[in-house]
Amino acid sequence: MGQQPAELTPDESPWHRWGAELRRSRDARGLSLEKLGRRVHVTRSYLSKLERGKQPPSRQIAAACDRELDVCGALVRAWEKAYVEVHGVSTRRVHVSNPRPHVSKTPADLVTAASEQATSDDEGICVPARLRDGTVVFVALDRRDLLRGGVGLGAATAFSIGTPAGAADSSAVPGLVRQALSAAAYGGTPVEHLKRTRRLLIERDNLLGPGHAIKSVRNHIEVIKQLRREAKGADRHDLMELQTQYAEFASWLYQDLGDFNSARFWLDRAFDWSHTVGDGDLTSYVMARKAQLAGETRDLVDVVDLAEAAQRLARPRSRLAAVARTYESYGHALLGDSGESQRAIDDVHGALDHVSGDPTPWGVWLNAQYVEVHRAQGLEALGKHDQAADIFTAAIQTLPEGYHRDRGVYLARAAVAHAGAGAPEQAAAVGFQALAVAEDTGSGRIFKELGRLDKSLLPWQRQSEVAEFHAAFTAALPHEA
């Protein structure tokens, strides 16, 4: 006598409701969990979790199940509805529904996905991919090469996007210039219009990841350059300051995509332009960001020096000095200096009260939670995985609404820490959550951390939870040809 299927509770949450829809569609086709799992390249137990609402599905899995069960988009539409209910964000408005290149796709499907995501014939797409040795790297897929020759991934690797870092959509810029110039009709100025646009792009990045903002940011940098040609006096200065801010934001977006070369390019531009503005706080902030980027790439040489340089540029006892000291702490951890790393973090905690009234607009997100996340990051680098996992878990629980991508980063780092602490089942479970965010947002930082997690779980690869995570992570990535 066969095992009775688990009772479902579709009223418990949107993902429980989606799981019930999957069960109904699967039963209608007469497919077992085992057979459907083989077709969509995931395990039986993983699909069972989806049906019971124990695990939120990625859109790619929803689309794969929809295709194999031949339900004409019903499962995808149900996924989109559940996503909106859970996150309060429409997936259609910003094209989240476009799937990332997926290992289960045919070569023709991968070419089509690349064509849809590339913004011009000269632009490639940067995607995480798995090499033969299991390493996860970011590869540039050139749209024209894909269309000519198939899907080989032996192109540029190691976090390179394969397009000029400063490329923009020239056809869109004239219209954006007209919009900025027409701001006067609504009682505003071009600078005010561009400031509002930047704030909206920042909100989009927080919710949906960098891929939905980077093209607009590059276009608006070109808009500002064109407006500066005719501007004079204070307007010209304000536009230059805004251009610097957009460049720093472009660097952040590329950093989150995993394209560190382009991130450095835009930080270099921002640093140069900040000197023409004469804003010492802005220059100090960009230098601190350089230290942060060096830490992100685990640069053992530059991170401490850059952070100390940022502190010298900052006003004494200012918020920006504290921001730079935070990044310095991670540099010391990378060098294995636990005492200096923890002293730096403690110094920042001690400075939080007196920097809270600092009028600079930079680094306003510096608070105790942010500092503790960096303490955890340093502890993980130092091999103190238990402590790091506890701090990351606490930070996730107190993260404000709307920081969807940041939650994914913290989840991925917490999972790595759990694995380091010898808790593979917990690491895999948390990794599943981070993977869902990675697929939704396209955050290269999350994929990079999950690549570390996948490697660190190798000693437990026969455990069911670990095997399921490995299968799901593998299914989310194209492979080296």
Please tally the β strands and state the result: 2
Helix-strand pattern:
HHHHHHEEHHHHHHHHHHHHHHHH
Largest sheet: 2 strands, antiparallel
Summed over residues and divided by their number, the pLDDT gives a mean of: 81
Characterize the overall form: globular
Number of helices: 22
The helix content is 55-70%
Distance between the termini: 44 Å
Query: How many separate domains make up the residues?
Result: 5
Give the class from helix and strand content and strand pairing. mainly alpha
- Approximately how much beta-strand content do the residues carry? under 5%
Walk across the major sheet and give the strand order: 1-2
Explain what the structure shows.
- This protein is an all-alpha fold.
- The chain has five domains: 74 residues, Orthogonal Bundle (434 Repressor (Amino-terminal Domain)), CATH 1.10.260; 40 residues, no CATH class; 101 residues; 101 residues; 99 residues, no CATH class.
- 65% of the residues lie in helices and 2% in strands.
- Strands 1-2 form a two-stranded antiparallel ribbon.
- It is globular.
- About 12% of the residues have low confidence.
